[in-house]
Amino acid sequence: MEVDAIKTYLRIDDDMVDDDELIQSLMDAAVEYIQNQTGKQYAKDDNVWNVCIRLLVAHWYSNRTLNPTKPGNLSEFPHSVTALIHHIALCQSYPVVTTS
């Protein structure tokens, strides 16, 4: 997945490059987080994985302040993220992460 795909999902104009490094680091963190939570290897062309990454990045990007101004518990992931992570963890279609 490319930064431009996430920027489109976040509705950030392509010519706005100030947050590209942040978005890339959030994407990398999302892949690592999902792999660590599920024990499954990232599948680059898998729609479920990519939706989960987009949702995580959007959540982290929108909630990056230490003192949230929005009501509610922002430390919890939206239900859709949690459901996708559980699906990836339980689905036999995804290969297990191998360590060298």
What is the domain tally? 1
Count of individual helical segments: 4
Radius of gyration: 14 Å
Q: Which sequence of SSEs, written as H and E, runs from N to C?
A: HHHH
Oligomer: single chain
Describe this structure in words.
- It comes from Megasphaera cerevisiae DSM 20462.
- By secondary structure, the protein is mostly helical.
- It has one domain (3-90).
- Helices cover 55% and strands 0% of the residues.
- It is built from 4 helices and no strands.
- It has helices at 3-10, 20-38, 47-62, 79-90.
- The longest helix has 19 residues, at 20-38.
Q: What is this structure's SSE topology?
A:
Layout: H1 3-10, H2 20-38, H3 47-62, H4 79-90
Organism: Megasphaera cerevisiae DSM 20462
InterPro entries: Phage_gp6-like_head-tail, Phage_HK97_gp6-like
Protein name: Phage gp6-like head-tail connector protein
Which features characterize this protein?
mainly alpha, 4 helices, 0% strand, Phage gp6-like head-tail connector protein, 100 residues, 55% helix
